[in-house]
Design brief:
Length: 329
Amino acid sequence: HYFIQSNLRFSMPNIKIFAGNSHPELAQRIAQRLGTEPSKVVLKKFANQETSVEIGESVRGEDVYILQSGCGEVNDHLMEMLIMIHACKIASAERVTAVIPCFPYARQDKKDKSRAPITAKLVANMLSVAGADHIITMDLHASQIQGFFDIPVDNLYAEPAVLKWIKENIENWQDVVIVSPDAGGAKRVVSIADRLNVNFALIHKERAVANEVQRMTLVGDVTDRVAVIIDDLADTCGTVVKAAEKLTEAGAKNVYAMMTHGVFSGPALERLMKSPIEIIVVSNTIPQHDKIALCPKIQAIDVSSILGEAVRRTHNGESVSYLFGNVPL
């Protein structure tokens, strides 16, 4: 009798994957990788613009994963995710994991001037209060955001996928220089340069106002080399385009850019088309089809295998640290 009891206690509940409206295609790919289908949920808006969520199947005792990326209509998608988490939680789900490939408000992570809000902390509180038990995200803007939560956070890296792309698509990749467009990304760049065993360079920038860059200074040598700019986020692309111009001035042979999250808002695509960047590689943590159609320089690498494997390992109670250094097959 005892044996049956203990067996029941340790059997893992079944898995359910729900997709928000931000990126249904990624959820479909993750579900496919796990040999299942995204579960039924109806997300719509009432006439007064309030969000309506109807979970279409039982989640009692299930291991639930809710996928929503912080892109497009960020606030609507955030609210949608919170309501879905809450709906699953009060419908007796065993565990609710929020899979947030691109974390919303991640750049508002410190008081950089008087009276500035720390919105990333507020979002962390909202997710916890809604009932999330676990967060899976990718390339957080600042890894300290993990400490804004009291629940486990798995911050996955796109780095293994970036290394793979460089080795497969840049000939003589042994001679590239990895460049950080600002001091904040230095750690990420040094890590990639070390793993490829190549040199790195830094660009120091000074900003007058947010989203606009003033002066730039290049530290390091890129003469007659292929420069690869690496950062976590491409938003208006002001920084990355100025950095590319600086590198071309300094004698770089070709300039590539690799960003985990391709937000591309405002004049970004126009800037990229005019810039000396040959290819800008982003991951599909944010949907990219429309942007690729408008700007052929953009290439997307699929990270659904990394996220899907993280979900599978979490569900089975296995270690996720393998994914920090390897791309799953």
